[in-house]
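PROTOCOL LOG
Step 1. Enter all chains and additional molecules of the complex.
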Amino acid sequence: MKTLAAQVITPEDLLKHWQGHRALTRRVIELFPEKDFFEFSIGGMRPFSKLTDELLAIASPALKSIVNRDSQPYTETEKLIFKTQYLEKWDEATAEINQYWEKLTIEDFNETFKLFGQYEFPIIQNIFYFIDNEVHHRGQGYVYLRALGIEPPFFWER
Amino acid sequence: MKTLAAQVITPEDLLKHWQGHRALTRRVIELFPEKDFFEFSIGGMRPFSKLTDELLAIASPALKSIVNRDSQPYTETEKLIFKTQYLEKWDEATAEINQYWEKLTIEDFNETFKLFGQYEFPIIQNIFYFIDNEVHHRGQGYVYLRALGIEPPFFWER
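Step 2. Run joint prediction.
Step 3. Record the structure below.
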């Protein structure tokens, strides 16, 4: 079908791209020593556990609200106190994202949605925001790891 | 035209997205004190000038090589010694990217290209890499700024 060539990227490839990034972020979480995950910070910034709280509060819940067209306020999950709990939550979110993604139609991407009841943009821009925000904070996690003397994973390992 | 709805994102919007990120990175460069831009680092990482060398070596030259289907090895630009030179180079690259982008056809995005003679992927993935890599390193720049006691721009300011 010639018309399919008009796509810059297919929904399937965009999901793969996102989940590739999420797999890399998971490896960054894993690399933090337990204590440093909750306590280490630079320049008054949030420790990586708090940055992860934000990422968990966005990805799956935000995609769910998009799929249901049910704008929910931004809320961070219940307080987790062990890194393994974060990794479990991360994996749950991975599966949920795959499920919600299947419910997105190709038309949805260009419709607007008021994310968290606040940010009204085309859904594709919301999704780009989820990815970019994760890459941004993960980049900060790389600095934390380096400052702790820990070598982060290669950026292109997904 | 109904067929256009099959696009997840148009080339025009993807360019706008990329240039929005580039405008934010430019503001981060501007915020660095001259000396710290070249010298400040954390955990043995490159100072932000060196990270910017990398970003400049990728964006415009890489897009040019894609448009010309002329795979060139990765090379960083001549050594710049003032922040204003970086900002000038940045603005030149902004204009060049806009020009090269016009030469990309919709079909190009799904063709493969061996970037820098090494990384053979669909062109859309190459372009996502340019953006993600910039967001990643800029996130690191945010930590440098915070460590220097300087408030970085809001992430959503493009």
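Step 4. Note key features.
Chain B touches chain A through 44 residues (CB under 8 Å).
The CA atoms of residues 55 and 133 of chain B lie 8 Å apart.
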